[in-house]
Amino acid sequence: MAAVDWFAQAEVAEPLPAPRRPRRTSQRPAAPVRSKRRLTRRRVRGHIVWMTVFALLLFGVVAVNVAVLRAHVAVSQLDQQRARLEARNQALASELSAVNSAPRIEAAARRLGLVQASAGNTSYLDLTPRGR
Question: pTM of this prediction?
Answer without folding.
Answer: 0.43
